[in-house]
Amino acid sequence: MLELQVLHQQKESIIERLGKRNMPVDPALLINEVIQLDLERKDIQTSLDAVLARVNQSSKEIGMLFQMKRNIEAENMKNQVSSWKQEIRELEERSRDVKQKLEEALLGIPNAPHPLVPGGKSPDENLVYKNWPGSLPQPEPGRLPHWEIANEKNIFDLKLGVKVTGAGFPLFRGKGARLQRALIQFFLDEAVAAGYEEVVPPLLVNPETARGTGQLPDKEGQMYFINEDNLYLIPTAEVPVTNIYRDTMINPSDFPIKLTAYTPCFRREAGSYGADVKGLNRVHQFDKVEIVQIERPEKSYERLDEMIAHVEQLLEKLELPYRILRLCGGDMGFASAMTYDFEVYSAVQKRWLEVSSVSNFETFQTNRMKIRFKNEKGKSVLAHTLNGSALALARIIAAILENHQTSEGIIIPEVLRDYTGFSVI
Fold first, then answer.
1. Where are the beta strands (DSSP E) in 148-247?
2. CB neighbours of 197 closer than 8 A, spacing ≥ 6?
3. What is the pLDDT, as a whole number, of residue 75?
4. Interior/surface letters 321-358, b for 16+ CB within 10 angstroms, e for the rest
5. Tens digit of pLDDT for each residue in 183-210?
6. Hey, how many other C-beta atoms are within 10 angstroms of the C-beta on 406?
7. Which stretch of 76-90, 100-114, 235-249, 315-329 has the lowest confidence by average pLDDT?
8. Quick one: DSSP state of residue 425?
9. pLDDT (tens digit, 9 = 90+) per residue, 362-405?
10. How many CB atoms lie within 10 A of CB 313?
11. Please, how many CA atoms are within 13 Å of residue 399, restricted to the half-sphere of its CB?
12. Are 361 and 384 contacting, i.e. CB atoms less than 8 angstroms apart?
């Protein structure tokens, strides 16, 4: 949620930056609505404070008048106070109504993109931040897409997933299940070695938690909801992990806070038909290792670079060709100020597959969650939050099956062999 003070102080800049998102509504209308509601809120509060002051002062004078036996004057003043109390009730009701409208308006505005974020409407306008330096791998004759090699080698079964649950819920088995588990442990070990503390969070969250990271009110349609318990299945570990520090005043000496978690992730998002969603390209349940950081504002973009480097080295160790994109405003998530996507190349499909997003949310999430610290002057300041996939497994497995496929079988990347216990499928 954008900060009210920043909206007042940097109105034109915020409107210009929101313009990069290609929003369906003119951002100037949204920002002006918020500012007007906030000014109305302040006016009501000023009037309320004035009436409360009159009531307090008159209450003291009434007592003095009764002590002085000036009962008629005291009774007249009591009547006046009664009318003021009615005015107070009306002002408080107006205040609640305006505050609710103000919060709803703020919750509906996405984060303002960082000045370096390119404008654009679609993924086609994303900026290639770092390209694969060499030639892209070419498939050998007879190389199969991952959904076909999976059936041949008994790695995962999409039909059984449909039988047990439905489309988009693959069932891994045999060496496929072991490869999945090996990747999870490898990613966790790498994160811990990089200074992240591992946590095991709940897979269900309440609406307040989902609202804190920006999933609500933006992504209700993409999350699975348990109506009876008013709980959501998590779309990513970012949601419960970041909320660990909700309503917390952080000790500055604790920065940077670095957390990692492995969780299954659940997303209802509907996909199109065709190769784009075949096999593991798009599923409703997938495993992911997430990294989260909470940091001082002046250090957060340094941390973003650090997280990008962390994901890079994972892909290099897995011997997968990759590129990094800086997302344009129209392709960024609702809560993000800047996002970098990592894509690995699928030699058989001859296309890039997104496997990670690394984002800086600046104060957008911490303003909702009230994650603060006191600076050197003792002033309460909002921290910055960041998160990244390190990594999302479904497409990583797809990339390994396709890029490491040879006539002898699927060669397991060397870094994983101690985890899998085998070097080839």
1. 156-157, 171-172, 197-198, 204-205, 225-226, 231-233
2. 258, 259, 260
3. 79
4. bbbbbbbbbbbbbbbbbbbbbbbbbbbbbeebbebbbb
5. 999 999 999 999 999 999 999 999 999 9
6. 10
7. 76-90
8. -
9. 999 999 999 999 999 999 999 999 999 999 999 999 999 999 99
10. 12
11. 27
12. yes
Q: Which residue has the tokens 């994983």?
A: 416
**Cα–Cα dist 146/410, whole Å:** 11
Per-position b or e across 83-104, b if 16+ CB within 10 A of its CB: ebeeebeebeebbeebbeebee
Residue 237 phi, psi dihedral angles, 5° rounding: -65, -20
**Res 57: pLDDT:** 87
Q: What does 309-366 look like in DSSP terms, one character per residue?
A: HHHHHHHHHTT--EEEEEPPGGGS-TT-SEEEEEEEEETTTTEEEEEEEEEEEETHHH
Query: Mind listing the pLDDT tens digit for each residue in 136-182?
Result: 888 778 889 999 999 888 999 999 999 999 999 999 999 999 999 99
Check whether the bond before 144 is cis (ω within 30° of 0).
Answer: no
Exposure string for 125-164, b = 16+ CB within 10 A, e = fewer: ebeeeeebeeeebebeeebbbbbebbeebebbbbeebeee
Q: Are 118 and 326 in contact (CB under 8 A)?
A: yes
pLDDT band of 272, cuts 50, 70, 90: very low
Separation CA 351–CA 353 (nearest Å): 7
8-state DSSP, 282? S
Task: Give the integer Cα–Cα distance in Å for 192 and 57.
Answer: 61
**What proportions of the chain, in percent to the nearest 5, are helix, strand and coil?**
50, 20, 30
Cβ neighbours, 10 Å, residue 402: 27
Buried/exposed 238-261: b ≥16 CB within 10 Å, e otherwise: bbbbbbbbbebebeeeebbbbbbb
Question: pLDDT exceeding 90 applies to what percent of the chain?
Answer: 84
C-alpha distances in Å from residue 287, one per residue of 64, 94, 98, 182, 399: 72, 47, 42, 12, 15
Contact 240, 205 (CB under 8 A): yes
